[in-house]
Amino acid sequence: MGPQGVLVLSSQVETTLVDALVSIGFSPLVRGSIQSALDRIRREKFAAIVVDQKRVKVDVLEFILNVRDIDAEIPVLVVGPSQGEPSYKTLQRLDNTVILQEFQSAESLAKGLQSASRAYRARDA
Fold it and tell me: I want to staple 116 with a disulfide (CB 3.0 to 4.6 A). Which of 12, 47, 58, 98 is the partner?
């Protein structure tokens, strides 16, 4: 995908999210399963990972920990309300991970991605 590619973990394509990513200059690649997403992350470099909590039936913490085994610093943005996971507080403490309960616009999504990627970009500088 390249440095402007963003992998989106979502079981359904959410057009608002995809449109917002495109409008801020990213090329989203949507995957519906953990295994499919992890396979792509192993083979390609992405600018960030976006997890759509509302449209995915996976353990988000497990997915992010697997991502961290592949790339410890890739920015991860978790979008959507918590599904009542007891791991929510753990998610909040993970480096290069931001939880965005809801995004109202492309700008709020961009700010979330920017927050998640600060350390990642500093590493590559």
Answer: 98
pLDDT of residue 28: 93
How many other C-beta atoms are found inside a 10 Å radius of the C-beta of residue 19? 13
Interatomic CA distance for residues 97 and 18, integer angstroms: 19
Any idea what the CATH number is for the domain that residue 56 is in? 3.40.50.2300
Rounded distance, CA 121 to CA 123, Å?
Answer: 5
Residues 96 and 74: beta-carbon distance below 8 Å: yes
Question: pLDDT tens, 94-111?
Answer: 888 888 877 677 777 777
The pair of structure tokens assigned to 42 is 């192993």
Find the domain containing 97 and state its range.
5-124
Q: How many domains does the chain have?
A: 1
Is 26 a residue whose pLDDT tops 50? yes
pLDDT, residue 86, reads 64
